[in-house]
Amino acid sequence: MEKKDVDALNMQTELDNANATIQELKQSNMDVNDLNEKLQAKIAELEEQLEAMAAAPGKAPAPVKKKPAVPEKSFKVDKTEYLFTVPQFSHSGSIITAEEALTNKDLLKELVEMGFGGIKPQPQP
């Protein structure tokens, strides 16, 4: 085997290793995003409880509104159908429900492009 063939083989191996690492990092990023969204939703719930407690010291806090359900409706971006896996999420400093997001095509496209962990491709029948 010639040196240039060995070099090409070594470069291909390095490229394959780099691609595998990229895939692992993408999955880790999706996992972290998913966990972050769940934590943001919990923080919003706790902030509501804290506000209720501050508004009426010495009294039991008012029941906190139940968080919205995960919508069953799918959405399409670039010929792929997606489903939300979280009922709400934080985006640009705001809490957005999945139902609200379904009405904003630009936001949906942005979520897909960033690899947001609160959505997943809809399984094909």
Name the features.
3 helices, 125 residues, alpha+beta, two-stranded antiparallel ribbon
Topology:
Layout: H1 3-55, E1 75-77, E2 80-84, E3 88-91, E4 94-97, H2 98-101, H3 105-113, E5 119-121
Would you identify the regions where 5 or more consecutive residues have pLDDT less than 50? none
Major β-sheet annotation: 3 strands, antiparallel
Question: Rough shape?
Answer: elongated
Q: What is the CA–CA distance across the termini?
A: 48 Å
Radius of gyration over C-alpha positions, nearest whole angstrom: 22 Å
Summarize the helix and strand pattern as letters. Answer: HEEEEHHE
Secondary structure: number of strands:
5
What is the residue-mean pLDDT, rounded to a whole number? 84
SS-based class: alpha+beta
Strand content bin: 15-25%
Strand order of the largest sheet: 1-2-5
Helix amount: 40-55%
Can you describe this structure?
The protein has 125 residues and is an alpha+beta fold. It is built from three helices and five strands; from the N terminus they run H-E-E-E-E-H-H-E. The chain has helices at residues 3-55, 98-101, 105-113, and strands at 75-77, 80-84, 88-91, 94-97, 119-121. A three-stranded antiparallel sheet has the order 1-2-5, with helices on one face. A hairpin with a 2-residue loop joins strand 1 (75-77) and strand 2 (80-84). The longest helix has 53 residues, at 3-55. It is elongated and about 80 Å long. The relative contact order is 0.14. The mean pLDDT is 84.
